Structures are given as structure tokens and as C-alpha cells.
Amino acid sequence: MHTLIVVRHAKASPADLHRSDFDRPLATQGVEDAGLLAADLRRWHPRITAIVASPALRTAMTAEIIARAYGWQPEQIEMDERIYEASADTLHDIVRELDGLGGTVILVGHNPGVLELCYNLTGGSVVKMSPGAVVVIPRGPDPK
């Protein structure tokens, strides 16, 4: 890939005793914010090669909103269980696997792993990732 776009899922609903962390959906504000970030992504990066996301509900919802902005179906998103609760090392392994793809890849995940990944890949310039944050990381030459 020549560009990696790392997205932290949008604002999730609060944790509660009746639902597992994995099953927390986006909050209403998170759905709205994800729609705005998806529109911006589509405008800034009109063509993408892949969307890879954690299957946790809030992350899957964010990825699906992004996919819809590109006219993609939810089935086109690659859900990777390793992204949920992933360390930066695990996310680095996933990114290395994605390097074989051409174009632009969007990875949708969770803190603290995505923050640590972005910190490492940007030489320490990314030090905070709020819900819905987007970090664009050039990875190599743009394929012709």
C-alpha cells in the first residue's frame, strides 16, 4: 500500500453491566461523527483498496459507515479479530501484511493500540487519538 489511514472508532455508547465491551455500539453522536469523517475521507482519498477493521460492534459500525461513503457493501470490509484489544506489535504485524496491497488502506481500530501504532509509524508525532480520529501515514511510492 502507498497510504495507510488509521481510524479510531467513533464515540461509543457508555459501558454498562448488561453488555460486553465487544458489543458496545456507537453513541448517537458517534454515528453522526463517523458520517462526517467518512465524507471527509471520501473527499480526501477518493479511491481505497481495502478497509480492515476490528469486529467489535462500535468499530464495525464505524467501518460500515466509511464503507457506505465509498459505495461499498459491509461484506467488503475485512474484519480481523486480531485488531480488538491489539497491541502495537500486533497492529504492526497486520500493517506489514497489508503492505502487499496497492493503493490506500483504511484500518479501523481501538486505543491504546492504534495510538501506539501511529506514534511509532510517525516517529512520535501522533500523541493523542480521540474517538473518530484519523491519521494518514504514507507507506511507500504511489503505484502508477
Short description:
The chain has 4 helices and 5 strands; from the N terminus they run βαβαβαβαβ.
Task: Note the topology.
Layout: E1 3-8, H1 28-44, E2 50-53, H2 57-69, E3 78-79, H3 88-98, E4 104-109, H4 113-121, E5 134-138
Parallel strand pairs: 1-4, 2-3, 2-4
Antiparallel strand pairs: 1-5
Q: What is the overall pLDDT average? A: 95
Query: What characterizes the major β-sheet?
Result: 5 strands, mixed
Which fold name fills CATH's third level, the topology? Rossmann fold
What is the CATH C level class, in words?
Alpha Beta
Distance between the termini: 12 Å
- CATH architectural designation: 3-Layer(aba) Sandwich
Strand content: 15-25%
Could you spell the SSE succession in H and E letters? EHEHEHEHE
Number of domains: 1
Report on this structure.
By secondary structure, this protein is an alpha/beta fold. The chain is 35% helix and 16% strand. The protein has helices at residues 28-44, 57-69, 88-98, 113-121, and strands spanning 3-8, 50-53, 78-79, 104-109, 134-138.
Short key terms for the protein model shown above:
Rossmann fold; alpha/beta; single chain; 35% helix; 144 residues; five-stranded mixed sheet; 4 helices
